Amino acid sequence: MTQATVPNPNPDPAAAPPSVAFVVSRLGFAVGGQLADALKPLGIEPRHFGLLRALAMTKGQSQKAIATTLNLHPNRMVALVDELESKKLVRRRPHPSDRRAHTVVLTPAGEQLLQEAFRLAIGIETALCADLDRDERQQLLHLLSKLRAGDTDHPGVHPGLAGRRDTSRGMNQ
Amino acid sequence: MTQATVPNPNPDPAAAPPSVAFVVSRLGFAVGGQLADALKPLGIEPRHFGLLRALAMTKGQSQKAIATTLNLHPNRMVALVDELESKKLVRRRPHPSDRRAHTVVLTPAGEQLLQEAFRLAIGIETALCADLDRDERQQLLHLLSKLRAGDTDHPGVHPGLAGRRDTSRGMNQ
DNA sequence: TATTGTTATACTCTATAACTATA
DNA sequence: TATAGTTATAGAGTATAACAATA
User: Fold this and answer.
1) A159–chain B Cβ distance below 8 A for any pair
2) What are the sequence ranges of the domains in chain B?
3) Strand partners, A20
């Protein structure tokens, strides 16, 4: 308990060494904001980007199927599709075999905007990694892939799309 | 339109190579959720953790000074301090020289809970990096530190504390 | 009876701005 | 007049649950 200069009985908790968790969380938040800013001129937000991206993959599936893939409440799905449809980026069409269901497809304008959004996203990636050479970036991706973030369901899907916080571990029942 | 297996005219945009930006954003979101879950038994949320952490550093400062350090609206500051005070983790005391101002200090219970919160946070870090050896983790931290995430104001502060999205580039006028 | 999509409603969270008491 | 803190209010976003059409 003897001390020379620092009277603090417990070690200063705020001066903790940087943690991967904290740094990643902070970076992720910043990057998300950057993407939102970049997409604003296109009139969409990151969540719309995520949905457009998924629609480009799964052509002609029902809303329900897409929502399941993205771990999205039917609720939010409707709102998102509404917004994209009002911007003529997406169109609802009758499902061929199930008259309850709708399929959702990109319009040509939607495909074009998606390409532009990808260009913007690549711009963010480039700026973010500007101080890394090719090997360093590859090494970083490798190390990040080794992190255990749980949530291995829905690979390639950003969990933020689903809404706030997943308190009840999976919405589907 | 003839097709053998893949009719896709443009390269599948959704099958883009993994980007550091996307991976970091997804990881950060997951980690944030983990911290929220871990802190729940303590009765606090990540934002309270962030404030308690700051209070442990800056002892006896005014609310305004702390809010400025954390890039926090006076508004949110009041609500946060209210919540912590109702849990007896923090106490408002009159500022010695300015009778308008309040200083905010941790109670012994607050310091104890903060220590416990740090233990939980370390647990998350440990689990997250379980598949990395010491050198790999150090290398990862090094590479992450080289990313250009902008926002170099308010070092060591999680931008999520400030609220939603920083649309107007800095709230202070 | 279950499921797809939708709508209605309540709840939480955040932001804007007005207010008080000091300076 | 400006500032620290507070309160009030409005707005955005999310989740819960009820609903109509179809299976």
Assistant:
1) yes
2) 37-146
3) none
